[in-house]
Amino acid sequence: MGSPRVRQWLFDRLPLAAIVAFLSSKEVPRHRHSFWYYFGGMTLFFFCVQIITGILLSFYYQPAPEHAYESIRTIVNDTPHGWLVRSLHAWSAHLMVGMLLIHMFSVFLMKAYRRPRELMWLSGVALLLLVLGFGFTGYLLPWDTKGYFATLIGTEVPKSIPLLGRWGVSLVKGAEYVGEETLTRMYSLHVIILPLTGLLVVSFHLLVNQFSGVSAPIGTVTNKSPIPFFPDFAYRDLIAWLLGFAALLVLATLIPRELGDKADPMASAPPGMKPEWYFLPLYQTLRMVPATVFSIDGELLVNAAVGILIALWALVPFMDRRSAKGLRSPLFTGIGVLIIVYIVGTILAGYFLP
User: Fold this and answer.
1) What are phi and psi of 156, to 5 degrees?
2) pLDDT digits (tens, 9 = 90+) for 312-352
3) Three-state SS string across the chain, please?
4) How confident is the model at residue 101 (pLDDT cuts 50, 70, 90)?
């Protein structure tokens, strides 16, 4: 009897009835590509796991070079279930990036960015950049060898960007060398600035999604009735979350996150060191481009190309005029497929080529 009374008490004091009515009126198209709709919710789930596990880790972590490594080792070895929380945090980061990439490219190929959903696409691109920022700023926090030298090398790459490159690197590093100031700034970015910004962008993305609705691919013909978002699709989303959590538990338990050796700033970078898989496309591209191309610095060309591609990627809804008119757009579909092939190819090359 307590549950209905609490429910009624809340409904009397909050506009829950209006919210439930609004969600119940929203419908999700049902067709042979409906499976791809669940990856957006999966991305949100792993983002929530990141927030929760990150808060738990912050209770014990000490952001100082002389204490960071030891605090992580204490979490892994001495704190009850600390190894599991850290492993969940690490694996959910990988899964979050993977789900986000699948979600973004499924949106791209189904042309779900077309009017009136341009703002959803723009906020999605912003979320991709924020998630990659999470990955990069989290590298240094354990103060292990891989994280230290990955940060050292990664902060050197943008220096070739005219005007803003050296200023941006100096702002992030706080000093000429990677040290205490760098760790403090990376920690602030990782646990305060990026999460707060991410929560705002995620909230905006979800709000726009509620008002714009879910898009069906152009030319999709189906006689099936749409799925009510609440409670039908929400229940299915919950099942996907449970399956994702089960997969996360399996990975975190069977392949726990290992802590490497403590960083030694006086040592040389270990041979064969590579970044995480989601940075391998940029890493492999930098390796493939010569040091100079027609007397122009190779890193500068790569940085310029990346900046232009990100801008073009964000402007896709405004460039794809055919999709905006409800017509098929084979050119943009082909571009999306080529990008996917390049990303997958460079990731495989990064893992299997010497």
Assistant:
1) -85, -30
2) 999 999 999 999 888 999 999 999 999 999 999 999 999 88
3) CHHHHHHHHHHHHCCHHHHHHHHHHCEECCCCCHHHHHHHHHHHHHHHHHHHHHHHHHCCCCCCHHHHHHHHHHHHHCCCCHHHHHHHHHHHHHHHHHHHHHHHHHHHHCCCCCCCCHHHHHHHHHHHHHHHHHHHHHHCCCCEHHHHHHHHHHCCHHHHCCCHHHHHHHHHHCCCCCCHHHHHHHHHHHHHHHHHHHHHHHHHHHHHHHHHCCCCCCCCCCCCCCEEHHHHHHHHHHHHHHHHHHHHHHHHHHCCCCCCCECCCCCCCCCCCCCCHHHHHHHHHHHHCCCEECCEEHHHHHHHHHHHHHHHHHCHHHHCHHHHCCCCCHHHHHHHHHHHHHHHHHHHHHHHCC
4) very high
* Length of the chain counted residue by residue: 354
Entry pTM: 0.93
Residue-wise pLDDT for 48-91, tens only, equals: 999 999 999 999 999 999 999 999 999 999 999 999 999 999 99
Paired tokens of 235: 């229940």
* 330-352 and 280-288 helices, crossing angle to 10°: 80
Residue 36 one-letter amino acid? W
